[in-house]
Amino acid sequence: MEKIIEIVPNYSEGKNREVMEKIIAPFKGLDGIKLLILEMDASYNRSVVTAIGEAEAVMRGIVESAGLAAELIDMGTHRGEHPRMGALDVLPIIPIKGIDEKECIELSYIIGKEIHEKTGVPVYFYAKSAKRPQCENLPDIRKGEFEGLEEKMKDSFWQPDLGTIPHPTAGAVAVGCRNFLVAYNIDTDSSSRKKVLRIARRVRFSGGGYRYIQAGAAKLEDRNICQVTMNLTDYGKTALYQAFEAVKMEARRYGINVTASEIVGLVPKECLTSSLKYYLGMDEEEELDLNLDETVELAKKFLLFRDFSKQKIIEYYLG
Amino acid sequence: MEKIIEIVPNYSEGKNREVMEKIIAPFKGLDGIKLLILEMDASYNRSVVTAIGEAEAVMRGIVESAGLAAELIDMGTHRGEHPRMGALDVLPIIPIKGIDEKECIELSYIIGKEIHEKTGVPVYFYAKSAKRPQCENLPDIRKGEFEGLEEKMKDSFWQPDLGTIPHPTAGAVAVGCRNFLVAYNIDTDSSSRKKVLRIARRVRFSGGGYRYIQAGAAKLEDRNICQVTMNLTDYGKTALYQAFEAVKMEARRYGINVTASEIVGLVPKECLTSSLKYYLGMDEEEELDLNLDETVELAKKFLLFRDFSKQKIIEYYLG
């Protein structure tokens, strides 16, 4: 089976499109890798790229791209509102299909090593790839930013995993495996932000709710309704259907109804089918073989998805 | 408002009733403290006592009782199947009413100090009262048991919080504040342990479920049905109604129905009323003023409690 991964590299360039086009060129027109999104933010002076594909091809693409970023971005002159420490600032690597977490962590070590050897940029392994507790959390690594790197790396506690001193113009990079993050919102028929926030508090981890739900309340001013806005940080363990049903259950207390739900961005097909199996009364291990159109239909029916189409399913781009 | 706490001291004597009666005498016939349960286990050679009452009175009682345990139990000759390190082996202190966690932790420090001063027995503060990460988990402290204490305390990592060497006959004691633990089981109409275990996995923390639910499946052989058997380790954050509704929701997948639920042991009234407010459509902060009979009635109605009476509510004993 093909090993499919997603990468979401963040680059410290958010204004000059010409430069960014050069940096992401390695993701274009190649077999086995697909550039999905380029988001440039001028005030952050930062770009976030989403690309997916077969592990080997993605690796070749990102190593190439990291080399171009190190050549074309000068952190010495970079200014922007978002904290940053390198030209390629952070590289999250996400297992999508046919590759488990352990393999993906191993892959992150290989990619980190290749980037370091190509560019000389020191590498911190972070998130699930962290080799030390202090490296689990990106903001801790990045504290002090590019300007503070030289001092920081003198402290043995903050020595990079690869390399010993910052790259003079490209700084340092954090590379690591993390889970796919599903951005999922549930619309209610209530205009009370206060009540919907109470619902959110009850379903989220910090309030005693589900382990992998982060949640808050947001008002949609144009429609005068509130939604529970969520991140599912491990959809394999805390599933979409659990988030959806838990919100319905808590809303009942206030006589509030759930009217729809929406995926923000993209979602792996497996995240949908595993929850559809719940509604179809199937065991977790049973195979559910749906094409993308059928998946969309059933998600609309059971999870009340709105503004959804197969273009929001990652597998659409793997065709 | 009165500060009500529960203590669950464990003593290393489970065979000699005469000795245990002497040790628990300080809990009897005194104002402000009530002995609820004495469970003696001969093969463990260990007794577990449950007492509740006003904080000041409970403190006087347990310090007295710890002194008697140190006099009457000789760990040098103690044999039993349960791991143990002291005559009074562990003293959990649980906030019930009118006292918050912070105050209860402070109280545990005072009680530990008084026990140490009275008996000379060294004290480890554990659970929420732990002052060092290695002391959070009781089995880690107790590892090596009474016989290994002298060696263990030579290691600075395992120095007690109070005292420096083990008491020659009474060993050491762990004292700490923890949450009230609600033992809660939900009956299903299914005889399939496999399916009910799947439900349990989905609702428990380790499987991605609710933060403060531990759960498994148990078969009731006489009735040929299975139940989800649970501990709620912080009912203020993960409530009874959430456990009950989550099990119903997961059971639906398999066409399984929830037929009843039961509290094992005792439960604070607040644990019930906070969940009844959900079913009555009340806000969390609204006052719900029920007497014990009304509380029992509504819990049977909404949570399908079986074998329940006001004698299972802690407040029944607070007169």
Task: Walk me through the structure.
The structure is a homodimer of 319-residue chains. With 319 residues, the first copy, chain A, is of the alpha+beta class. Chain A has two domains: 174 residues, Formiminotransferase, N-terminal subdomain (Formiminotransferase-cyclodeaminase, Chain B, domain 1, 2-Layer Sandwich), CATH 3.30.990.10; 136 residues, Formiminotransferase, C-terminal subdomain (Alpha-Beta Plaits, 2-Layer Sandwich). Helices cover 34% and strands 23% of the residues of chain A. Chain A is built from nine helices and eleven strands. In chain A, the strands form two sheets. In chain A, strands 1, 2, 3, 4, 5, 6 and 7 form a seven-stranded mixed beta sheet that branches. Chain A has a four-stranded antiparallel beta sheet with strand order 9-10-8-11, with helices on one face. In chain A, α1 packs antiparallel against α2, α6 packs across α7 and α8 crosses α9. The longest helix of chain A is centred in the middle third of the chain and has 19 residues. Chain A starts with a strand and ends in a 16-residue tail after the last helix. The model of chain A has no long low-confidence stretch (mean pLDDT 96). At the A-B interface, α7 of A face α7 of B.
Mean pLDDT of chain A: 96
Give the CATH topology of the largest domain in chain A. Answer: Formiminotransferase-cyclodeaminase, Chain B, domain 1
Largest sheet of chain A: 7 strands, mixed
Going by helix content, strand content and strand pairing, the class of chain A is alpha+beta
Number of helices of chain A: 9
Specify the CATH homologous superfamily of the largest domain in chain A: Formiminotransferase, N-terminal subdomain
The beta-strand count of chain A equals 11
